[in-house]
Specification:
The structure is a single chain. With 71 residues, the protein is mainly β. The chain contains no helices and six strands. A three-stranded antiparallel β-sheet has the order 4-1-6, with no helix packed on it. A hairpin with a 2-residue loop joins β2 and β3.
Length: 71
């Protein structure tokens, strides 16, 4: 659960193949990311701050998620 306008995550992929990550906000699909390397990814950019539940779903094993930051 969060209250923010922007959400970022440091994620990585230990393999050579891009990993597809689905982003859901309050149960609704918000976007899809391809994690190809260790980096800071912008997950959510909203017009105004709001509360919600964020889910990241990867169908492949091995996704590395280090931290979330909020703005």
């Amino acid at each position: 659960h969060f209250h923010a306008r922007n959400i970022f995550a440091v994620m990585g992929n230990p393999g050579q193949k891009a990993m597809v990550v689905n982003v859901l906000l309050n149960g609704k699909k918000l976007g899809v990311f391809k994690v190809t390397r260790h980096a800071l990814y912008t997950l959510v950019k909203l017009q105004h701050s709001k509360s919600g539940v964020l889910e990241l779903i990867s169908k492949e094993p091995g996704l590395e998620l280090y931290t979330f930051t909020f703005g």
